[in-house]
Amino acid sequence: MSPLIRVAGAALAFAALSLMAQTMDPKAATPPTAAKKPKVMTKFGDRRVDDYFWLREKTNPEVIDYLKAENAYGAAVMKPLEGFREKVYKEILGRIKETDESVPYRNKGYWYYQREVEGKQYPIHCRRKGSMEAPEEIILDVNALAEGKKFTSVGLMEVSPDGTKLAYTVDFTGFRQYTLNTKDLVTGAQGSEKIERVTSMSWAADNKTIFYVEEHPETKRSYRLHRHLLGVDGSDLVFEEKDEVFDIEVGETRSEKFLVMSASAKDTTEVRVLPSGDPRGEWQLIEKRKSGHEYFVSHHDDDFYIRTNDKGRNYRLVKAPVATPGQKHWKQLIAARKLVMLESADMFKDFWVLTERDNGLLKLRITDFKTGNHHYIDVPEQVYSTYGGTNAEYETGTFRFIYESLVTPKSWYDYDVTARSRKLLKQQPVLGGYDPSLYASEAVVATAKDGTKIPMSIVYKKSLRKSTPQPMLLYGYGSYGISMDPWFRSSRVSLLDRGMIFAIAHIRGGGDRGRTWYDDGKLMKKKNTFSDFVTCAEHLVAKGYTAPDRLVIQGGSAGGLLMGAVTNLRPDLFKAVVTQVPFVDVMNTMLDASLPLTVQEYLEWGNPNTEKAYKYMRSYSPYDNLKKGAYPAMLVETSLNDSQVMYWEPAKYVAKLRTLKTDNNALVLKTILEAGHGGASGRYDALKELAFTYAFVLDQLGLAQ
Predict the structure, then answer these.
(1) Is 677 a catalytic residue?
(2) Residue numbers in the chain where pLDDT is lower than 50
(3) Which CATH architecture has domain 3-93+447-700?
């Protein structure tokens, strides 16, 4: 008998019957059955029959009825946990300082901040002139915007260079379709602007011209740059991106001397710049796009500073004269390094800051422009996350950064670059007597079948750490080169104080170990992401941290694809699965170029219109690989107005799974009917959703007490 089987066998006695299973009335909770309406699709000789393709008909009352029936069933299943869910909600809420302010930052003589008021769902954005003792000016009260609305999300907020006007975008559906509005900060009057589908924007130096990017109405690709003069009907089209795998974005350099327009695909960029004082001028191309070449531009004095991967996947830093910024004029400052990822380069008047990822750990490197000397900002822990905060001013002697870990609450610092000293401005309040010293975090490493070392970060309460397997929540993502750095959440204490261990698997496909880590978990190497996660779970079981009947896994969006894939691979390895807005219907989505984001995603997953990619993607698509058998308990969460992963993917997944699962484990589909990809927009609503999720997890582990 293998060590893995021995540990799992020894843990069987743990599996307490969940509270919902003990008290649920089977007659009151009969799962709905979605009608089968077969749609046959054949490609490259592969015949797929999709019985639930019709669930994508959002305007069909039968579809909404099915989603509501699933919600009603889920409510019935979870009804025995109502009291416990409320207890968890009060715990989470009780650790939050409900009336609080953010750390103010200075910009052009004003101090900007946001505050939250007990009982109100949304922040209030404010500023004070000269000092924090000056009278408060309310720039934007999101609670006022949200009156009478079931969902409200403010996307962008940009104050004009002279501080007299505000441009902001807002979405009231959750579909991430934002409308640009303006406001006069002197009179308080709303501007006439109501420009739809805006994804990025930037003011020109004249305080009356706004450049903004328009989103395509169907594919949601950011594809057109416009120039708009305040108070004037219409806008001028400046640039249109024709290549369907590229999006464009507009912003400005920290020096505020240049506007920057970037065209970006998943593996290629092209940048143009325009002097911000010349809004009707001609945009200057930095370097023509070349497949696989990514570069990003900052500005200082007479030079552009460019982070580029032209000589190595982990990027190098070069500079070039503003007058001749092309690649043939690039002068290297920092070489590309095999084991160190150059994540960002930020320019200030007297110094610059690099964010580096060295062996998976983030480091902040400060360099003095005059002397060229550099040093790193020290950190106190081995498992942590650190990154730049809001640094609005170019001429400054301080650098604001944020530090947090799995045990240390988010902390804001101002760092004196010359004195090499830091000042703690604020640490996230955690009410209720939270003591970081009572908790411990560790770095754990598993070894994949190909020999790759897969890092994990774990946290637990010291006094509850046992020599026997413990309940665990293992989180994973592993896509788009996004890193899952160890982050603090006060809500997590509700798990840790009940004896759970929380773990993050830093699997390939993410950016946790640099750009090559991403490359090894995308396209035709995507299955590394799934096998890495299984390897991590097996390692945690083999080392006695947990056991299969005590292990819950969680992931969302592309992490939901991960959940579906690993559950198909090893349904016996997990007690329960939480999958949120999951990308599970890979083949149907990636074969439909009319859907938002599909074409751009070819560079992440592959183009299934080619036979090799089709067969590879078909082999792991969670929806297409469901089969008859026993599955873990599962909570599937989605939103009706999600524009990133359409609601029908999880709905179809659950409908099909209900016809195939041979177990009696819970399968709950919860659809928020007035939200998008990020779930509920109000902070109290979001906490209630989190309490729902935690109640499910804790109940599956026999900890709903």
Answers:
(1) yes
(2) 1-16
(3) 3-Layer(aba) Sandwich (3.40)
